[in-house]
Amino acid sequence: MTSRSKRFTSTLNQTAVYWANPTNDGYGGRTFDEPAEVDCRWEERKELFIDPSGQEQQSSAIVYVSEDVVVGGYLFLGDLDDLSSGEEADPQTVENAFEIRGFNKSPDKKAEGFMRKVYL
After folding, report:
1. Which H or E run includes 64?
2. pTM > 0.85
3. Are strands 114-119 and 102-107 parallel, antiparallel or unpaired?
4. Which residues contact 43 (CB under 8 A, 6 or more apart)?
5. Quick check: 35 pLDDT over 60?
6. Measuring CA to CA, how many Å separate 66 from each of 40, 45, 50?
7. What pLDDT, in 10s, does the model give residues 81-99?
8. Rounded (5°) CA angle 115-117-56
9. Closest CA to 117 of 15, 20, 36, 47
10. CA atoms within 13 A on the CB side of 52
11. Which of the residue ranges 14-23, 25-34, 36-45, 71-80 would you say has the lowest mean pLDDT?
12. Which residues, listed in sequence order, are joined to residue 36 by a DSSP beta bridge?
């Protein structure tokens, strides 16, 4: 990891809970992988972005994360201990858990590290 990449990851000083791999459950809902904690920097700000279908959207928050995430997954600012019993299974029941609507991954100048930007 380059010193530039280390500097960027050192700014990820918050924790988020991430629910990955949304899958159609066959009944009109979705299921998700078990939630996991990821390092992040969560910014409550609006920013225009292009979603996967090519439509311009406005985010409600921007989150920089330490690993790749998938559109349709969910993020919650906090850690697993902040969730009530039973909330872990379905992020759609968690207050202040937000669906990931966009994701960009950009390499640093030497392509030795990445900046991962999530649009909620």
Report:
1. strand 62-65
2. yes
3. antiparallel
4. 61, 62, 63, 64
5. yes
6. 6, 19, 22
7. 999 877 777 899 999 999 9
8. 135
9. 47
10. 9
11. 25-34
12. 18
